[in-house]
Amino acid sequence: MWVRRVIELTGWEPLGLSVDWPAIEGELGFPLPADYKELYEAFGGGTFSECVFFMGRDPGVSFDLLEVWRHSLAVERDGRYGDVSAVDPYAIYAPGGTGLVPWGATEWADQYFWLIDAERPGTYPILVRGDGGGPFERYEMSTAEFLYRVLADADFLPYGIARYGIEPAFEPPAGTGG
């Protein structure tokens, strides 16, 4: 239902992308949310309303979920900075553990994550941190519902962009032909 609402809101013609989800989920060590997979198959990675970045599986493109996660995990594991985490009080998810996986962001440095717990597959609370820092806010809703509310709900504070009069739209990364 929420994926369909995002499609209708943006006027987007679904791409119907084919994705090797078992390979991606095998590397991550957890099944991705079903509605996230539906969103990606319809849109690919890209930008909603010129300011909300949605990560997909587009190797070599800045919107690649696995590449962003791999980079975040590598930084997290880099011992040069001790036990400091960029997502404190959490950690970046490592297969088999508990932690955050980034799936979106905004041009204002808001960051969107799933809180993944390998012991609780199928549970995907969304954690959001505004302005690139500060405390996390937790949302018990699907990825597609959260994205829809960001794009369409002017009262979805502080993350809703509809209050700024920004037209709901989607744009794939340049050069991807989406």
Q: What do these coordinates show?
A:
- This protein has helices at residues 2-10, 21-28, 34-43, 65-77, 143-152, and strands at residues 46-48, 52-54, 98-106, 111-117, 126-129, 136-139, 170-171.
- It has 178 residues and is an alpha+beta fold.
- It has one domain (2-171): SMI1/KNR4-like (3-Layer(aba) Sandwich), CATH 3.40.1580.
- The protein is globular.
Major sheet size, sense and barrel closure: 7 strands, antiparallel
Please report the total strand number as a whole number. Answer: 7
Determine the N-to-C terminus distance.
Answer: 23 Å
Mind telling me the CATH class? Alpha Beta
Counting helices, strands and paired strands, the structural category is alpha+beta
Shape: globular
CATH topology annotation: SMI1/KNR4-like
Topology order in helix (H) and strand (E) letters: HHHEEHEEEEHE
Strand content: 15-25%
What is the helix content?
25-40%
Unreliable spans: none
What is the radius of gyration?
16 Å
Mean model confidence by pLDDT: 90
Q: How is the largest sheet built, in terms of strand order?
A: 6-5-4-3-2-1-7
In the CATH hierarchy, what is the architecture at level 2?
3-Layer(aba) Sandwich
Oligomer: single chain
| Individual helix count | 5
> How many domains would you count in the coordinates?
1
